[in-house]
Write a structure and sequence with these properties.
234 residues, Rossmann fold, 8 strands, globular, Ubiquinone biosynthesis O-methyltransferase, 3-demethylubiquinol 3-O-methyltransferase activity
């Protein structure tokens, strides 16, 4: 039996806010604002239409649903019943088709090995006890030659100032306590996790927030938020 790689307190934290997931002015506003950016980046590299895709840690379904609307055949996996209930309810409004499952990444990887063309795991690795285990599960889910996308937060003083002090205490963009600095992951660490899981890291790109115009952009510099694109070795 696979031991679940999850933190009950983290699940409870996001479950308590689940009813606000699709409110673009709520605590999830940053996810709504970055979603077009990350969606276009993923679509640009793997042409989502017609692809079998799974979003690990899908929460209320913001990314999963948007990939489905681009024509992908999407599975969303999460351990929060409340978040998944909200995700399923929103499908009635959007008309999108997504298979939502309450299941751990490691469990579905055992059930569906090498099943997906595209695997996404965004803003989740910093919330699990063993991120390397999640990376391995994502690798196992991908077909040989498939694309795997991660996003997370770097671990350094600048990231602490920007992602915790700035975002949670100064700008109030996120609820206080959303992130724990010790769980942030350096790009070199994530690259090692990926390599050990049989993934080739082909791109690392930073995600930047400009507090003056309140806009996000992708570009050089991975000091705080960053995304990684990997290909599963054939």
């Amino acid at each position: 039996m696979i031991e679940t790689n999850a933190d009950d307190s983290e699940i409870a934290k996001f479950s308590a806010l689940a009813h606000r997931w699709w409110d673009p002015e709520s605590e999830f506003r940053p996810l709504h604002e970055i979603n077009p950016l990350r969606l276009d980046w993923i679509d640009q590299h793997c042409a989502l239409s017609g692809k079998t895709t799974i979003d690990i840690g899908c929460g209320g379904g913001i990314l999963a649903e948007s990939m489905a609307l681009r024509g992908a055949h999407v599975t969303g996996a999460d351990l929060s019943e409340k978040a998944l209930a909200v995700a399923k309810l929103h499908l009635l409004e959007s008309g999108a088709k997504v298979e939502y499952l309450k299941i751990a990444a490691e469990t579905i990887a055992e059930e569906r090995p090498a099943h997906y063309d595209v695997v996404t795991c965004m803003e989740m690795l910093e919330h699990v006890p063993d991120p390397a285990s999640t990376v391995r599960a994502c690798a196992e889910l991908a077909k040989p030659g498939g694309a795997v996308f991660f996003s997370t937060i770097n671990r350094n003083f600048k990231a602490y100032l920007m992602a915790i002090i700035g975002a949670e205490y100064v700008l109030n963009m996120l609820p206080r306590g959303t992130h724990e600095y010790a769980r942030f992951i350096k790009p070199a660490e994530l690259s090692r996790f990926a390599r050990e899981a049989g993934l080739d890291s082909v791109e690392i790109i930073g995600m930047h927030y400009n507090p003056l115009d309140k806009r996000y952009s992708l570009g050089r510099g991975t000091d705080v938020n960053y995304l990684m694109r990997c290909i599963k070795s054939a």
